Amino acid sequence: MTTSRGIASCSVDGISLYDLNKKILFRKLQTETNKFVKIAVEVGGEVLAAADESYEVLLFDIRTGNLIGSVGRHEGPITSLLFVRPGVLASGSWDRSV
Fold first, then answer.
1. Hey, which of 3, 31, 47, 93 would disulfide with 42, CB 3.0 to 4.6 Å?
2. Residues of the chain predicted below pLDDT 70
3. Concatenated DSSP letters for 3-65?
4. Predicted TM-score of the model (pTM)
């Protein structure tokens, strides 16, 4: 039985997903306009949340790379992003909201 291990990183040019078992970059998540500053991966490894420079939080399906949708926008820079438990995402911002 093989256990999948991976790591994700973000930058202004997109989100890179790496497979640590195979030691490869297996997917690059990008949109036309978003520059990402924070990411969080759901415990099950199926959903990735990404905060961008315009203070919006987007959700991606890791398996397909498809954008699932947006969960909202803050009024200031997003400083934290965390899946508290499966299906529950928390984000914190300089706008003093969670």
1. 47
2. 1-4
3. PP-EEEEEETTEEEEEETTTTEEEEEE--SS--EEEEEE-TTSSEEEEEETTSEEEEEETTT-
4. 0.87
